[in-house]
Amino acid sequence: VLHPWNTKILYAGTWGLWNRGGLFKSPDAGKTWKRIGFGLENVDIRALAFDPSLPDTMYAGTLNGVYKSPDAGIHWVRSNQGLENIHIESLAVDPRDPKTLYAGSWRRVYKSADGGASWSPIPTGMDLDSDVFSLFLDVQSPDTLYAATCNGIFKTLDGGKLWRKFSKKEGLTTIRVQSIALDPQDPQVLYAGTVGGLFKSTDAGASWQLITEDSLIIWSVVVHPEDSRKIYLGIENGAIVKTKDGGLTWTETNAGITNVHARAAALSPFNPRVIYIGTLNGRNFGGIFQSEDGGTSWKRINRGLTNANIEALAMNLKNPDVIYAGTWEGLFKTTDGGKIWTRSPGIPGQERITALGVDPYRPEVVYAGTPQGLFKSNSGGRQWSKLNLKGKSFSALAISLLNPKILYAATEYGLYRSADGGLKWKKISAEALRSGKILSLALKPDDLQTLFVGAQQGFFTSSDGGDTWRAIPLGPGQRGIRVIEIDPSHPNTLYTAEATGHQIYRSRDGGVSWERIRSGFDLDTPVEFIAVDPVNSETIYVGTAGNGLYSYTFQTEISQAESQIAPLPHPPAY
């Protein structure tokens, strides 16, 4: 929410953010954030509201009821008398009479006439199972109130005595509406944040139009009180995004609480300061990002991509300007370092690409794993042929650096090996690997026979090309292994990350013994990848499923793991 007297001051209440929920304050319009709040017994904050006449008075709706602060959010006391349901999702304050409050719970709306000291239900006309996610008052006519619920939007003209429901016929095609906001200059203009994008009405809700992509899951909507072209959205994965042009373009504005889902990485072997990151944050906020200064700054390089959910990246090691990107809707290629991407033809339909591999010596040879099987190109992606390998889910693909004709592929049926570039395959899964999914795979770059597998059951190694296997425990309480990365300069140095936990381990003796990397990281989300700097192997990059990208330098055992790399920006879509 915006401070009613100072629009540079913002407050953000969070919940379920990987156990990091709470109240945050920004004094500079979202550039920086600081956590505040004493006395909140439950950090799951679902709603915030101000007393417009006394803006130091704030209210917070939480999963433990309503809280009130007399000092702009520094201290809080509980105010729940009369609330039969304390799971509060939304709040609204009457600007004519700030002692009149409304609170939306998991089943009904409550009203207070004494500044939150006591509450009474006002459910007439609403569906009984309507979880009320958002409430909004028409400031020019405060008896007019809108309620965004799991069953659509309800409207009252008499302060909650009777409610009317908007239907799908009016254009609001998504039933689950999680936030609603009014244009302060024109109360006929409404915005509804739903699990299927942002909708806009210009006639007080009589009709609605979708104005963002329908893949956006929107938790909150705020319209700037002085310039209604500026709209702020709180979206899934913790991001806060804004528009300055009424919704034509959107950018991120939440440095300090950014939640980027970094899925894949590619590093230039000739210039370690050039990094490419593939993310799963959707068309407007995801895609591929490039840094040319080691992660200090980023730019989005999505021109030509028709799908911005990136599953895999692979680079031509002889020409790092040539990069392949596996997306949810096919394979794309760039030959100019990401300035322009083009779709690679030949793979059936718009298949989701889950694994990629490029021959290190003959980079025109490319492999791509899809739900339709494993495909191979001998022409840099211009033409493809399907390989004879059983499987629809390719979780890992590895090519031997010593002999690129030797391939390993993990599918839902197990682990397979080919010695002739994919023409013929042999299943090599040990009994220990057959009862769970293989999540990651790595080949020792200086040894044809040694490979490592991360699976739901743990970490496994083979020294005979996969004929026999040995399970190796990494540490107390270690769970399945999702990520394996080998230092290309020091092949006995390995890194792993847990599948369901957040721990990273390092081995410097080829996987015989392991140490947990403890200092510096703040990993509250699962690790998606680890990448070793190809020039300075003391530096690694760690991508997470919602908490951005980190770097770590072992040389100095640095004070804060290089902290978090500069958040990936989200400029307007091309």
Outline the fold blueprint:
Layout: E1 10-14, E2 22-26, E3 34-36, E4 45-51, E5 54-62, E6 65-69, E7 77-78, E8 88-93, E9 101-105, E10 109-112, E11 120-121, E12 132-137, E13 145-149, E14 152-156, E15 164-165, E16 177-183, E17 186-194, E18 197-201, E19 209-210, E20 218-223, E21 231-235, E22 240-243, E23 251-252, E24 262-267, E25 275-279, H1 282-285, E26 287-291, E27 299-300, E28 310-315, E29 323-327, E30 330-334, E31 342-343, E32 355-358, E33 366-370, E34 373-377, E35 385-386, E36 396-399, E37 407-411, E38 414-418, E39 426-427, E40 438-443, E41 451-455, E42 458-462, E43 470-472, E44 481-486, E45 494-498, E46 504-507, E47 515-516, E48 527-532, E49 539-544, E50 549-553
Antiparallel strand pairs: 1-2, 2-3, 4-5, 5-6, 6-7, 8-9, 9-10, 10-11, 12-13, 13-14, 14-15, 16-17, 17-18, 18-19, 20-21, 21-22, 22-23, 24-25, 25-26, 26-27, 28-29, 29-30, 30-31, 32-33, 33-34, 34-35, 36-37, 37-38, 38-39, 40-41, 41-42, 42-43, 44-45, 45-46, 46-47, 48-49, 49-50
Features of this protein?
574 residues, Methylamine Dehydrogenase, Chain H, mainly beta, 50 strands, four-stranded antiparallel β-sheet
Structure description:
The chain folds into 2 domains: 10-252, Methylamine Dehydrogenase, Chain H, CATH 2.130.10; 262-553, Methylamine Dehydrogenase, Chain H. Strand 36 and strand 37 form a beta hairpin. It is 1% helix and 40% strand. It has 574 residues and is mainly β.
